[in-house]
Specification:
Blueprint (H helix, E strand, L loop, with lengths): L25 E3 L9 E8 L4 E6 L4 E6 L4 E7 L1 E2 L13 E9 L2 E8 L9 E2 L5 E4 L41 E6 L16 H18 L3 E4 L9 H10 L4 E8 L11 E5 L5 H14 L5 E6 L3 H5 L4 E8 L5 H5 L2 H19 L2
Parallel strand pairs: 2-6, 11-12, 11-13, 13-16, 14-15
Antiparallel strand pairs: 1-4, 2-3, 3-10, 4-5, 5-8, 7-8, 9-10, 14-16
Helix pairs in contact: 1-6, 3-6
């Protein structure tokens, strides 16, 4: 969870927006005089799903698409400093490469089937931005999500009861982040149970419980799809979330079924009370489960968010004690109540 879509350095910004594809190269020469040496300082992904190119001065650029989903962005008379880091491609792109070519920088991109890029746009302020395909940032929604099957041959998922949950005493926006999804199933445990299915089910029920208590809740994914780490953080930032809770299931090894238990993580001091409140409630609901405690960690989604954030591990899919519980819809309903109660306890402090 250490993927990073940032390469920082002080500079002027650039951003790119989509438009209709033309087979002709699109170029522009800004009216502002070019510096003798222009440097590309960083490429960031902003909360709106744009790639932001930060340079010392507005660059001359050329945009060349073709019919095969390949694109080339050339920044003329622009250099890569030695401390520039090449970034991993966003999930919405099949290819993203940055190369030096003489005095220019050449960026090659390829979209995935069914998507396209439109030409970048330079504003008068010198902001060059490239809008990524819409699939790169899931739509922010507060509607009850659509359920997907968990694992074969499981009983229907019971609707959790709101009995015993403390009422929410103030307005709050809560972002619930089901870990993994799509091509990334997370851990696969005893009996073939998959982390992605377990945490989506629990997250969905947590969302409904919190909505029933009057909270506005946003999920980073609502079905079995892959969402990268940076867009998860962006969703929380864009929603101006009061709290962010990422839900996961743990794993070690099939050869270590003796390792079981629940634990909760935080990064900043401001987030520790949230993690503690959730852990306390989980142990209240499941006193016979092993208490692995509240720990500090540098997971990307709790390190990059600016609101109180926590990452919850609801048990080990590889654990002899935990795996049967995680496969049980009654347990998952109770776990959703415990997590929701912990979030409400924190918000009602």
């Amino acid at each position: 969870m250490s993927k990073r879509w940032l390469a920082r350095s002080a500079a002027v910004a650039i951003a790119c927006l989509p438009a209709l594809i033309s087979l002709e190269a699109i170029s522009t020469q800004p009216a502002i005089a070019q510096a003798a040496v222009n440097n590309l300082r960083s490429i960031d992904a902003d909360a709106e799903g744009q790639l932001i190119f930060r340079t010392d001065a507005p660059p001359r650029f050329e945009w060349t698409p073709d019919l095969g989903g390949n694109y080339q962005l050339t920044l003329f008379d622009t250099q890569l400093p030695l401390n520039f880091r090449t970034l991993p491609p966003p999930l919405s792109l099949a290819r993203f490469e940055i190369n030096r070519q003489g005095n220019n920088i050449v960026i090659r991109l390829r979209t995935r089937p069914g998507s396209r890029l439109e030409p970048p746009v330079m504003t008068a302020a010198g902001l060059l931005g490239l809008m990524l395909p819409k699939a790169s940032l899931p739509a922010l929604t507060t509607a009850p999500p659509r359920l997907t099957p968990l694992v074969p041959n499981l009983n229907p998922i019971p609707q959790p009861s709101v009995v015993g949950l403390p009422p929410l005493t103030r307005p709050a926006v809560i972002v619930i982040d089901p870990g993994h999804g799509g091509r990334d199933p997370g851990a696969i445990g005893i009996g073939g149970i998959r982390e992605t299915d377990i945490v989506l089910d629990i997250s969905t029920q947590v969302t409904r419980l919190l909505q029933a208590q009057g909270a506005q809740v946003v999920m980073t994914r609502q079905d079995d799809r892959e969402v990268d780490l940076a867009p998860r953080v962006a969703i929380a930032q864009r929603a101006r979330a009061t709290v962010f809770v990422s839900i996961h299931a743990n794993a070690l090894s099939m050869s270590r079924p003796d390792v079981n238990g629940i634990e909760t993580y935080f990064f900043s001091a401001a987030s520790r009370p949230l993690a503690q409140a959730i852990q306390d409630r989980m142990m209240q609901f499941f006193p016979d489960m092993r208490n692995r405690g509240v720990k500090q960690a540098r997971f990307y989604v709790i390190r990059q968010t600016t609101m109180p954030s926590s990452l919850v591990e609801v048990g080990f899919v590889t654990g002899a004690e935990d795996a049967p519980r995680l496969a049980d819809p009654t347990f998952r309903a109770q776990m959703s109540q415990a997590i929701a109660a912990g979030i409400l306890d924190f918000l009602n402090r």
